[in-house]
Amino acid sequence: xxxxxxxxxxxxxxxxxxxxxxxxxxxxxxxxxxxxxxxxxxxxxxxxxxxxxxxxxxxxxxxxxxxxxxxxxxxxxxxxxxxxxxxxxxxxxxxxxxxxxxxxxxxxxxxxxxxxxxxxxxxxxxxxxxxxxxxxxxxxxxxxxxxxxxxxxxxxxxxxxxxxxxxxxxxxxxxxxxxxxxxxxxxxxxxxxxxxxxxxxxxxxxxxxxxxxxxxxxxxxxxxxxxxxxxxxxxxxxxxxxxxxxxxxxxxxxxxxxxxxxxxxxxxxxxxxxxxxxxxxxxxxxxxxxxxxxxxxxxxxxxxxxxxxxxxxxxxxxxxxxxxxxxxxxxxxxxxxxxxxxxxxxxxxxxxxxxxxxxxxxxxxxxxxxxxxxxxxxxxxxxxxxxxxxxxxxxxxxxxxxxxxxxxxxxxxxxxxxxxxxxxxxxxxxxxxxxxxxxxxxxxxxxxxxxxxxxxxxxxxxxxxxxxxxxxxxxxxxxxxxxxxxxxxxxxxxxxxxxxxxxxxxxxxxxxxxxxxxxxxxxxxxxxxxxxxxxxxxxxxxxxxxxxxxxxxxxxxxxxxxxxxxxxxxxxxxxx
Length: 576
Known about the structure:
Elements: E1 2-7, E2 14-19, E3 22-28, H1 30-33, H2 43-53, E4 62-65, H3 73-81, H4 84-102, H5 104-112, E5 123-125, H6 128-137, E6 144-154, E7 157-165, E8 168-176, H7 181-191, H8 200-206, H9 215-218, E9 222-224, E10 230-232, E11 245-247, E12 253-255, H10 261-267, H11 279-307, E13 311-315, H12 322-325, H13 328-331, E14 336-338, H14 347-360, H15 380-390, E15 395-396, H16 399-411, E16 416-419, E17 433-437, H17 444-453, E18 462-466, H18 470-473, E19 485-488, E20 506-512, H19 518-531, E21 535-540, H20 551-560, E22 565-568, E23 571-574
Parallel strand pairs: 1-4, 4-5, 6-13, 13-14, 16-22, 18-20
Antiparallel strand pairs: 1-2, 2-3, 6-7, 7-8, 9-10, 11-12, 15-23, 16-17, 17-21, 18-21, 19-20, 22-23
Helix pairs in contact: 6-14, 7-11, 16-19
């Protein structure tokens, strides 16, 4: 059985492929197009998945599309009818987008070269949030769990709760657009001067620099309801009938301004991008983050009481809020939390395929997914050919010599680009496409921002820590395979690893398992043997672009920045 999952004509378009129940490959289209959050049809990602699985177009049994234009049609029509004139342009855009989704059969025919009839009865449309739920539950280790999907919006839903048991997810309730925690967070992200799609993480990173002084004011913006859900005070938001996200011919998602004049009058005018961040901006960020957390805990506490379960699986764009994720077991009745590596919309492809595989076909569950390494990979021979063609000097070393050479560079204040094995699926670099540095250095953040990242100073860098040492350094000892949670660092350890300790004493960790990430584990362990610290500073291998995918992109990033060393598999390139 071969199932290809697709997220198309939506931000973070992607593809995933399952063969006989096992995920063989999954990747975002942006890794090929080199455009962040690219939202067209993921042709290159699909072709990559087919190559990795060694199957042809004709051998695919089902194409699972993580979008169902027919979902909640009555709700959509009722919403639009309340403001038809104001909705006209948006309805037109959505009709065009929905038509694209509805003609997937034609798209597959064009790129495969096969006649359209070859794809008849092979296409399954799976609702956006059901795909999110499936990406979390069916990939989890739990036989039974509560499920939450929460984001901006998709197929007219913004939040969906349910229960997963065995091969089935039963939906318990949902929240309809425009009442959305994602829209709430995005509107304030824009007000704080970060207007681009996906900028919400900047507000999360800035929040610890402030105090949640405006929480009471925000309670008028979002109301926590007795049914365990929430609703927005829509007076604070631009009408949803005027559109939220648009996609041009370049397939780049553009977010419309989401706040209204009332929000400006209550919280002040939007910060200009060049305007300095003030104490007020930081306090507002802290308040927005805290209100988002309270909303998530409100939903989860009601869900836990309703189901009586202690396992929970979460996905959706809001599930990328690692600060909130790290507080779930301390603020709700849930004891175990699973969030996939691509909890955002790229994970829709994986989820849609899993939904077809288990919910529709009743295929037996397989091993839980703890590895995000499903993307591109290159051999030493391929890397040498690329470098030889460019006349680049390099050395090829066995693993042990590489670990020694890299860690020596790090101990001496160097910054290393590390490209190893298959690329990660999702927004986090997890030791396959990473830039690494010494976490003990007080000046590491400044070095990285000066040499490579050139990003806001308030944004933290992450610690990759050997799994066995999490409890020694962090106040919680839970597995965090995908860097999806932020935990408090023990007070006595903060001075030891200042480069990865955020201003509030926390760290967004990745617990590194030697069975899942053997070479990255060995590198960190080599650093531990030299320094006594089982941690490396880890940030994504990119510079204002999607994470590097190929050796050429890694080399280009290395060349235009001031990295001290580049390692691609067993190939080492160093500055003279």
